[in-house]
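Handout, page 2. Input:
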Amino acid sequence: MKVITSCLITTKYKLLVTWLILLSPALFAQELESRKTTLENVTLVGAGIISTALNEFGASYSPDKKSLLYTISDAGYTHMTIMSSTLKSDMWSVPTVASFSGKYNDADPSFSPDGKRIYFMSYRTKQKEQSAKFEVWYVQKQDDGSWGEAQRVEAVATLAGYKSYPSVTRDGSLYFSLIEEGKSNVYVSRLKHGIHQQPIKTNIKSSSVAISPDESFIVLQEAGNLMISYQTNGEWGKVIKLPSPINSKFSESSPNISADGKRLLFTSNRLDYSNSAKPRRINVSTFSDVKHELTREIKNKLRNIYQVTINHTLFISGKP
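Output:
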């Protein structure tokens, strides 16, 4: 009797898996939404140290996840600086300005999967150039562990428009967003003999994008939500909204995928309403009091950095 029951359960399971694989993209998205327990909870990165009352976004882990690069900016994104922090005894160190940032308007840092390069966008010029625009730049790791002089990706610079969110695959293929005349498209520049080639336009449209290290899937922003698309035979499929708790009623953006493809970093402007309707325990009476109160409210609708472990079994085996 036990053997018969076991066979029936196995058969039902196989039928369920077959049905899930045959789901249309819309129904698959609903299935993702209904299976929230398959994802680990979203966590705030470095609360009070990295994620603060300031405007933080565009984070990237080093391959060993012991270092984090991210961007701090004003609300208007006119002063953007790339920051660096190191994980020591499960605590993030006080952030410092990255060695290659601090003079120009820099943002969106992204480690290459091998950790030998950091790509980022920057509003700077090369020598003898008169006008600057946001381009993709990179720094190369030196023999002593320091980062070398910033180099512009010349093939990307041949395209007109505003470039953002560079990210790289294991074979060095560079993905980035290009914004021109209000339209956002994703391009890829292949690496050949150490030199990036002329970018090719993909069928993905987004101003904020992250490629997986093996180039099997891409995470992007669409209308304030994070979406995912899978690549099959060189073509990107239909974009599917990621489930909660990754997406929320607030705005999610700035995705970045760790070198092992198992962790997703992203940005959200989530707001904590818990104290808004309550009287203060201690009244504010001076400017100093007001300033202190505002600078300790982390979830204040300015952007913070979050992370979640990607469930590859759900995302990849169940893709439409």
